[in-house]
Amino acid sequence: MDQLLWLAEHPDLSAAIGEVKREPDPLARLEATTRLANYRRDFTLTTRLDRLASEGLQAATNGEASVAGLQPLRIALLASHTVDHLVPAIRVAGLQRGLALKVHVAPYGMYRQALLMDDAELASFAPQLIVLALDARDAPLQLPLEASPESVAAAVTTRVDELRLLWRCARERYAAQVVQQTLVPADPPIFGSFEALVPASPWALIDRLNTAIRRAAGEDGVLLLDLAWEAARGSYGDGLAEPLRWHQAKQLVSPNLAPLYGDQLARIAAASVGLSRKCLVLDLDNTLWGGVVGDDGIDGLHLGQGSPSGEAFLAFQHYTALLARRGIILAVCSKNDQNIAEAAFKHPEMVLKRSDIAAFVANWEDKANNLRRIASMLNIGLDSLVFVDDNPAERDIVRRELPQVAVPELPEDVADYPARIAAAGYFEAVSFTSDDATRGRNYALNAERKVAMTQATDMQGYLRDLQMVLYATRIGDAELARSTQLINKTNQFNLTTRRYSEAEVERIARRGPRAVALAIRLADKYGDNGLISVVLARPDTAFADDELLIDSWLMSCRVLGRQIEEAVLDVLVHAARAAGYRTLIGEYRPSGRNGMVAEHYPQLGFVPHPAPTEAASEATFWRYDLGSSRPTRHFIEVQA
Predict the structure, then answer these.
(1) Separation of alpha carbons 169 and 261, rounded Å
(2) Burial 551-578 (b: 16+ CB within 10 A, else e)
(3) How are strands ordered across the β-sheet holding 547-555?
(4) Which residue of 93, 120, 359, 524 pairs with 331 in a disulfide if CB–CB is 3.0 to 4.6 A?
(5) Would you say 563 and 635 are in contact if contact means Cβ atoms under 8 Å apart?
C-alpha cells in the first residue's frame, strides 16, 4: 500500500543512503539522514535510515551534542501489542518532524504495572511523552450479547475510569504528556449492518469505548492517537489487526505500514512541543482557481458550481477557509501582477476573501525569496510555512532553496488537494482555544498596525495612539492550554526556550504562593491580540530564599516593538514583591533562534549575576533588585 504520499520521491533513496553510510562523522550522518527522511520511504528504507542515524541520535538525545533543527524528546511506549518493529519508523518520522527522539518500550503488556507501581527503568528514562498503545483484545469487556444498554454503559465507564487512573499516574509521577491510542476492532462483526444496534456486540462495544475515551481525553488534557478513526478513513488499508500478524507476533500494525504509524505518532509528538506548522501559503493560478487570471480575466476563471473542476477549486477554498477558522494563517505567494491577483478575490464564487489573507505577495520574482519575505512580514520562521503550488517545478525549487518550508507533493487533480494536505499532518493540533480561532485575523490586523506605524511622525506618538491595554492574570485552568501552546511554539522572543507539557506548567503554576505564573493578554484600538506572553518564575535551590528565578519568559513576535516587555516587568516586579522576594534572577539560554533577546535583561536594568555551578555552560544570569524604584517606560495601561 502506498503511504506518505505527501513526501516527494527521491530518484534513488537506496543509493543516497549508501552514500551517507560512508560518512565517518555520526552528527554529519544524522544531518544527512534528516534530509533523506523528507522523502517517501517504505519499511526497509526506513529501517536503513534509522541505523544510519542511530549513533548521532544517541549523542543528540543524551545531551552530548546539539543538532540544529532537531529538538530532543523522550517517548515511552506502553503497549498491549507488539511495538518494537515500529520504533525505527517513529525515530525516522521524528527527524522529518524536527525531533531527535529517544524511545523507551516497556515490557509487552505491562503498561498497568509501569504506571501503578514503581518502575525504576521508566523513572530513570524520565519520559516527556507517554503513549498508551492498547488494542481491542486487551482486557475485553465480558458482557453477554443480550446485555442491557445500562450494563454496557456501566462497563464502559469502569474501563474508562481505569484508563483515567493510568493517565493521572503518568501526569503525577512524570509530569508527562499522555497520548492514548484508540481501539481498532480486531474481529469481524457478527450481526452485519445490525451490529451497531446491539449494545453489547463486539463492534458496538468498541465504538462506545472509543467515544467514551475521546470524551474523557478531552476533559483530562490527554492527546489521542486516533487509530480507530484512521482505520475508518482507510488510511491503513488492511494493515491493522491482520489475523496472521496478530496470531504470529501480536502485531496490531503490520511492519509494512510502520512508516505511516511512525509519522502519525511523530506529528503528535511534534505538536506537543510546538513544532506544528502555522501558515498555509497558497499559489493562485490553477491552485485556488482554474485558469490564469492575467490571461483569462476574472470572468474566465474556473471556479464555482456548474463544472466539476470549478466545484473542485471551490471545495479546496472551503477547506482552506476552515483551516483559517481554526487558527492557521493564510498567505499568498504567486507569480502575478499584485493588482490583478487581488482583484480576482472579488469573483462572486470566491470563498476566500482578500481580508482572509494575512500576507499577500504577488510579483514576478522567484518564490523562494517571496516566501522569505512572507515569513518576515508575519514575524514567523520559515519552518512555520507550508507551501502549496500546483506546479511541480516550483515545488522542487522551493524544496531545494528552502528545506525548512514544507512543500507537499500534490495529486494531479485539485479535487484531492484537501485530503492530501490533511493526510500530511502539518497542522496537527494539541488544543483549540478562542485565541486560535482569531489568530489569522490578528495577523491581518497586525498588517494594519504596521501601515499606521509607517505613517506615524514619531514612535512615541504611534505607541500612544495604539491605546494599548495589558491584562495580566495568574495561569489557571482557563489559561493553561493556550499558555502551554505559546510556551512550546515561541522560538525567537523566548529567554530559555524550555518546553513544558500542560502537566508541567500546571505543576509550576500550582507550586504555592511563592511561584509566579502569569498569562499576559493585550488589546489595542485595532482589537484583541489575545494571549501574547507567558512568564513562569519559581524559587530554586541554586539561589537564596528571597531570590525568584525567571524560569521562562516568552512573547509572541506579533507584538514586538511596543514596549510590552517593560509593562510585563512591572507586573512581575509587583507579583514578586507581593510573594516576599527581594531579587529577580533572569536566565538567558541561547538556542540559535533567540538571539533577538540576548540583551533583554540588561536593557531592562538587570545586572550580571554569577551562574550556578549546575547551569548550562552557555547560559548567562542577571539580577534585578526589587527594592529599587522603577520609572514607567511604556504607554500601556496595565490591569493586573
Answers:
(1) 26
(2) bbbbbbbbbeebbbbbbbbbbbbbbbee
(3) 607-609, 620-625, 583-588, 547-555, 527-538, 516-524, 468-474, 636-639
(4) 359
(5) yes
Give the C-alpha separation, 8 to 395, whole Å.
Answer: 10
Nearest CA-CA partner of 466 in 414, 384, 524, 506: 524
Cα 376 to Cα 359: distance, rounded to the nearest angstrom: 10
CA distance 32 to 13: 12
Q: How confident is the model at residue 451 (pLDDT cuts 50, 70, 90)?
A: low
Place of cell 484531492: 416
d(CA 129, CA 268): 10
Joined grid coordinates for residue 449: 498596525
**Of the candidate ranges 85-99, 412-426, 611-625, the one whose mean pLDDT is the lowest:** 611-625
User: For residue 287, which of 474, 421, 471, 114 has the smallest C-alpha distance?
Assistant: 421
Cβ 519 vs Cβ 475: under 8 Å: yes
- Amino acid 457: pLDDT: 65
Per the structure block, which three cell numbers stand in for 188? 469481524
Sign of CA dihedral 241, 244, 248, 254: negative
CA-to-CA distance for 574 and 595, rounded, in angstroms? 28
Q: Which of 519, 480, 506, 430 shows the shortest CA–CA distance to 218? A: 430
SS3 assignment, position 517: strand
Q: Per residue, what are the HEC states of 442-464?
A: HHHHHHHHHHHHHHCCCHHHHHH
**How many angstroms from the chain centroid is the CA of residue 387?**
17
CB atoms within 10 A of CB 343: 14
How do residues 353-383 score in pLDDT, each as one tens digit?
Answer: 999 999 999 999 999 999 999 998 888 899 9
CA 390 to chain centre: 26
- Look at the block and give the residue holding cell 534572577: 585
Helix H or strand E segment including 246: helix 243-249
Confirm if 203 and 195 have CB atoms less than 8 A apart.
yes
Contact 548, 539 (CB under 8 A): yes
Q: Are 278 and 329 in contact (CB under 8 A)?
A: yes
C-alpha cell read off for 52: 544510519
Q: Say how far residue 306 (Cα) sits from the centre of its chain.
A: 39
Query: pTM value?
Result: 0.87
Smallest CA-to-CA distance from 591 within 56, 70, 95 is with 70
Q: What is the three-class DSSP state of 346?
A: helix
Residue 489 has pLDDT above 90, yes or no: no
Q: pLDDT tens digits, residue range 191-210?
A: 999 999 999 999 999 999 99
CB 74 within 8 A of CB 104: yes
C-alpha to C-alpha distance for 602 and 623, rounded to whole angstroms = 9
**Amino acid found at 315:** A
The Cα 57–Cα 66 span in angstroms is 10
DSSP readout, 519-538? Answer: EEEEEETTEEEEEEEEEEEE
Cell numbers 514583591 correspond to 577
* Cell 485530503 sits on residue: 419
What count of Cα atoms within 13 Å lies in the side-chain half-sphere of residue 20? Answer: 26
By the 8 A CB rule, do 370 and 333 touch? yes
Identify the pLDDT of residue 454.
67
Report the first-to-last Cα separation within the chain, whole angstroms.
57
- What are the grid coordinates assigned to 481, written together? 492550554
Residue 416: CB atoms within 10 A of its CB come to 15
Across residues 17-41, what is the average pLDDT? 96
